[in-house]
Amino acid sequence: MSLSHTLSNAVGGMNAASRLAEVVSSNVSNALTEGYGRRQLDLNAASIGGRGSGVQIGQVTRVVDKAVIGDRRLADAAVSGAGATVDLHVRLEAIFGAPGQQDALSSRVTVLEQSLLDAATDPSSSLRLDQVQNRAQDLAGALNTATDRVQSLRRRADADIAAQVDQLNTALEQVERLNGDIANSLNVGADSSALMDQRQRVIDQVSGIVPMRELARPDGRIALMTPGGEMLVDGPAKRFDFAHTPVVTADMTLSSGGLVGISVDGVPIAADGLGKLAGGSLGAAFVARDDTLVAAQQKLDHAAAHLIQRMQGGSVDPTLGPMDAGLFTDAGQPLDPLNTTGLAGRIEVNTAVDPARNGDTRRLRDGLNAPAPGAAGDSTLLLATGAALSSSQPIGGSGSSRSVAGHFADIQSSIGQARVEADQELGFTNARQATLAEAEAMTGVDTDHEMQMLLRVEQAYAANARLVQTVEAMIDRLMEL
User: Does the predicted TM-score (pTM) go above 0.85?
Assistant: First the structure.
């Protein structure tokens, strides 16, 4: 009986070594696979009736550091949100231009001022008057284009929200299905490590959209919840709804009802449209659409209103009445202080000086409502218009006094400063995410360790094989007796 028992133990050892070799080979081959959790085979000494009975091969365990993975996922969300914010501010800076750039809004005002000075030196020159009108058209057109581009970014943010909500819903449904598959696999004693790898990859793919924490549940299932307390998956996956708005204008906001937020079962998730889902790229898209870009449009509109106000009435052009539109108008009308939303998209040069609309550029010299041509050499109005642009006045009667170009330069500087701050935040979040990703990698497959384990497996297999060979020789000797 001792020989047969020895043979049984040796065969069991060879089986264990073979199974270990299989686990090691899986680890080595997946050393660079994203989301792969290192496998570890559980081996225990078996005994029957207090007597050693070889080795007992247990389950394959998936070894990961869930705490590090959870922190890394939160860092992924922070990086995605910060990256989207930087991209937005870069685009805004391109729209407004940096101080000193030729096509910046402040530079266009400066060019208009210079054209007025040039015309004042020779008021009789129709060429120079035409140049003033062209430069004024360029400024108004730049404001129109800036408004269009800001609203285009809002439409893009709205479409991005819709795409991310769809991606999030798909991933949550996959996690729900994988939870069920893993539970079924464990119930029948099968190895569910590959399913757990797949579930981790699915979660990692959307961890940048919404920050989430993983909570253990029985039978290998997990729940997903945001740090703010919004449950994403706990048994059934929650489904979020969002209706994309294909056309977005300056007057359309979430509070006005022109735009919508995320809802669940037809009920808005929160007044801000996002609720406890903030923190990742989805939250950044909401901030872009409803806060940052709305504020940028308001800056454009206030600057446009200030520009129109400086020029209208008789303070600059004595031929104008108190309510008459000046050189710049709100779609042909004087400024309405109660209707400035989207004004930068409506501002235009007075048709009285636009030859393309039956106007005459001589009115820049003689007065917009002048009944007859004035003295060809009179530069008074041209100088007064230039002075109105260059004089220091506060916007809306408050704040720092600046010229028109100075107010635009202040807006451009604030946009640039916001971009710099966003860059700094992205650098911080990138560094933190890289550190956590490195910590996670340290818990992954170490090929040096696996090669050492493979040598031990080889030695153990050889030793057990030698035992089998020895038992065989002993049995042969007995058979010779």
Answer: yes
